[in-house]
Every structure is written in C-alpha cells, then in structure tokens.
Amino acid sequence: MEQAIPAEGTEQEITAFVSRRVGAEVPADQDLFASGLVSSLLAMELVVHLERAFSVQILGDDLKRDNFRTVQAMTALVLRLRGSEQPADA
Q1: Alpha helices of the chain — where are they, by DSSP H?
Q2: Prediction pTM value
Q3: What distance in Å separates the CA atoms of residue 15 and residue 26, rounded to the nearest whole number?
Q4: What is the mean pLDDT of residues 12-31?
C-alpha cells in the first residue's frame, strides 16, 4: 500500500527537483515563469516528474500554467490530486 507524503515533504521534494534542474535555490513562493527559470521544456519535465514522483495524473484543466507557477502551487496541485480520486465536479 502506498504511503501518503505529508505536505512539507511534498514541497521539499518539488523544491529539490526544481533547484537541481535550474541550478539554483528556489524559494517556494518564487514565480518560476516570471523569473525566467522555467522554459516550456522544463514545464513539461515538471508535469512528468510530479506524475511519477507522486503517482498522480495531471490532465485537462490541471495543466494550466498557474498550477506550475510556484513550488507552492505545484504542492497544492499534488496534494489536491492525491486527496481525491475523482474530479471535484463528479
């Protein structure tokens, strides 16, 4: 059975991944797109990484840029996706 990763651990893992990919420490609230740290290629890598690392599927409306703008936003997305198996409007 899969163990839940606490929010803090999720944020730390995402921060570590992003920091490794951009070669710099990244604050959790930094806008990665506005700062120029994230290209469209890295954005796709983030999607794949989050799906693999946290066993989630990121589809449809969840693929919008705002969900990947900051580490905090990605953490919230992962926690939301792991918290429910069905879309909110189902």
Answers
A1: 7-22, 40-54, 71-83
A2: 0.84
A3: 7
A4: 96
67: which residues sit within 8 A by CB, 6+ positions away? 58, 73, 74, 76, 77
Counting Cβ atoms within 10 Å, is residue 6 exposed (0-12), middle (13-18) or buried (19+)? Answer: exposed
Distance CA 49, CA 22 (A): 14
Residue with tokens 């069905």: 86
- pLDDT attached to residue 40: 86
43-67 pLDDT, tens digit each: 999 999 999 999 999 999 999 999 9
The answer to whether the CB of 36 falls within 8 A of the CB of 30 is: no
